[in-house]
């Protein structure tokens, strides 16, 4: 999905968050203090990482602890625009909805699609996650920076609330 790449693009840093050649390199909860104002928190992924079942279970426990203890101003669910959201994406989206935590859905890897593929891909995400009016879906490219300004605006607005 490119979580670390999204963080690096947002913060204008090439290697603040480690970007590996294959998915699943984030194995801990990583906190980034932004402008001494808010923390951007990078959690382990769950989708395409090729790790053992035991490691995925450890990530699950780590994330459960984080979500039970953290005060989350807004959550960012990053999905790969090229693929239908996974069952884990649906579960995470449901958690945001059930807890009332504001959520921003980022459809990353926009640069990998032809223009004619974008709307159908966004529609599939909206349908799979059963998005409602008012839910926020941001097409994004960590590679090219598309969607960066909108995402920054949304995150700043969440911090101001």
What can you see in these coordinates?
This protein is α/β, with parallel strands linked by helices. Helices cover 40% and strands 16% of the residues. The protein contains five helices and five strands; from the N terminus they run H-E-E-H-E-H-E-H-E-H. It has helices at residues 3-10, 53-69, 87-99, 115-128, 148-160; strands at residues 30-34, 38-42, 75-80, 103-108, 136-139. The strands form two sheets. Strands 3-4-5 form a three-stranded parallel β-sheet, sandwiched between helices. It has a two-stranded antiparallel ribbon with strand order 1-2. Strand 3, helix 3 and strand 4 (103-108) form a beta-alpha-beta unit. The protein is globular and about 40 Å long. It starts with a helix and ends with a helix. The mean pLDDT is 85.
Radius of gyration: 15 Å
Give the class from helix and strand content and strand pairing.
alpha/beta
Order of helices and strands: HEEHEHEHEH
Shape: globular
Oligomer designation? single chain
- The low-confidence parts are none
The N- and C-terminal alpha carbons lie at a distance of: 28 Å
Q: Going across the biggest sheet, name each strand in turn.
A: 3-4-5
Number of helices in the DSSP assignment: 5
The major beta sheet can be summarized as: 3 strands, parallel
Beta strand %: 15-25%
- Global mean pLDDT: 85
Task: List how many beta strands DSSP finds.
Answer: 5
Instruction: Please estimate the helix content.
Output: 40-55%
